[in-house]
Amino acid sequence: MENMKLSSSYDESQIQVLEGLEAVRKRPGMYIGSTSSRGLHHLVYEIVANSIDEALAGRCDEIEIIIRKDNSVSVQDNGGGIPVGIHPKMGIPTIEVVHTVLHAGGKFGGGAYTVSGGLHGVGASVVNALSEYMEVEVCRDGYMYRQRYERGKTVTPLEMLGPCDRKGTKTTFKPDGEIFEDLVFDFDSMLARYREMAFLNKGVKIRLIDERPEERVEKNLHYEGGIVSFVEYMNKNKEVLHQKPIYIEGSKDGSSVEIAMQYNDTYVENIYSYANNIATTEGGTHLTGFKTAITKVLNDYARKYNILKENDKNLMGEDVREGLAAVISVKLEEPQFEGQTKAKLGNSEIRSLVESVVNEKLADFLEENPLISKTILERCITAQRAREAARKARELTRRKSALESTSLPGKLADCSEKDPSLCEIYIVEGDSAGGSAKQGRDRRFQAILPLWGKMLNVEKARIDKVFNNDKLMPVITALGANIGDDFDITKLRYHKVIIMADADVDGSHIRTLLLTFFFRYMRPLIEEGHVYIAQPPLFKVTKGKEDVYAFNEKELEKIFKEKNWKKEECVIQRYKGLGEMNSEQLWETTMNPETRTILKVELEDAVSADQIFTILMGDKVEPRKDFITEHAKTVTNLDV
């Protein structure tokens, strides 16, 4: 007892003061979200965001990002250059203050930036703290300066290297292997991110270069059309209802709004909102203002021209947004973001600005373009009828459920645990595999829902068809969170939704159909990390009484090498389907949390994901052919 008292004592000596950037290295997740691949890429984004802020201030129109062979990154712009003079308060060069002191920057009302995405003043210093080294070169007032840091500490004084005939800042850094789990940059995800930045900042040229392949890759991202080009890009593999996107803009009291929108022939909405170039993935006041205003304007127009008759119901928000691709970009001096992640905008004044701009400018557009207006309204009314049909189908389903002994699907084998955060559901292909899974599972927390046959491709169907589909309704009912605009993540009955299908073409198709359904009608399920893909083994290797499982050909070869086994001495079984495994094998390889491998489905880039689903699952054949031709040589694990 005495020892316990001593070990748990609390006095002045136990209060730690972390100096400089030690706090960032101690708790990197607080500043960049995670130390995974996502956090790694966030480092580049923080430096590029500083260059974009220079562009917003009118001082920069070219940004170059280079991934070096050693996985270091250089970001160079032609902006004004970071100040190098002695800081009046800190007594050291300002460039050193920016890179070694948290919450130091020109974005706190000093007049350097009217509009900025980086409001916390932690970007450059956090990247510095989490890098093995960082070297910054500044061209300013006709001279070039350089300073080097290692793991957040200054290692060379500021040097003046001589005259310079350009201006701007070049930052080169190498992420620290002591901090990050993964040090390899993904060029494709960076391309998607910085293409988005180029769309949002028309006229800014972003050059992305990858020096790691034998033949260096260079992409030039430059869109004079800005967000209009963005919407055209979103719709490039879809049939559009009007040839040119509708573009409206307006400003008031230092804040501005730009909106580009275009209807297509799909059954889902794709609306992306941004505030000061930051993607507000959880929406906010600007998105609310847009949704409210577009519904009002289209209803007013339909009433004025008798497209909606006297006894017709008003169009609802989901009716006017079906098949709508839109980008809303607002710029404001003092954005109020909810949370460090800046995922939701909270400024109340921006809602009224967006509403007034849409009310006035969209109404003008409709009056001036009656043919386009009629096409859009006819589309909205068709969506309204489908919604009404879906409502009736949903009510019919509910009435049927009330008459049955249970409202859960008949084939669902539920678990006994009632806390959703501890529960998982396996959506299993086929009755035979479902039978093995039911026998092999841990009934306390694992539920099994067998599916049979091909389900509806929701990319080609409206929501009313979903409610009439006997393959998808059991999934909707089992998860308990509804779909579409009615989806409520708080009602989710299982926090792990695991797709378990055969490792063949049919299994891949079922996985893709389910993922398409989740992405289109239950997107928060993916966004909040609830969807997983089971990884059943492809091979079972038996020698004597020992069984070993391999998930692919590479692992199979590794087993023979590590165990020093000869192939001819072993029995190798290749599983054609889950149904070939008995319940014990399925539990051991695929369902036991202690031994299984499951892949979390993450949504890195919603725009790219939308395009892939459209290409692979949509009506147009040509984009699908082109996609297959382009990726045929690089595809791996086609049957996994």
Which overall shape is indicated by the principal axes computed on the Cα atoms?
A: globular
Average pLDDT works out at 86
Gyration radius (Cα, Å) is 28 Å
Number of strands: 22
The CATH class of the largest domain turns out to be: Alpha Beta
Write the layout of secondary structure elements.
Elements: H1 2-7, H2 22-26, H3 29-32, H4 37-56, E1 62-67, E2 73-77, H5 94-100, H6 123-129, E3 131-140, E4 143-150, E5 153-154, E6 159-163, E7 168-175, H7 187-200, E8 205-210, E9 217-221, H8 227-234, E10 246-252, E11 255-263, E12 270-275, E13 278-279, H9 285-304, H10 317-321, E14 324-331, H11 348-368, H12 370-403, E15 424-429, H13 431-440, E16 446-451, H14 463-467, H15 473-479, E17 496-500, H16 505-521, H17 523-527, E18 531-534, E19 539-543, E20 546-550, H18 553-563, E21 571-574, H19 583-591, E22 598-600, H20 606-617, H21 621-631
Parallel strand pairs: 1-8, 12-14, 15-16, 15-17, 17-18
Antiparallel strand pairs: 1-2, 2-7, 3-4, 3-7, 4-5, 4-6, 8-9, 10-11, 11-14, 12-13, 18-22, 19-20, 19-21
Helix pairs in contact: 4-6, 9-11, 13-19
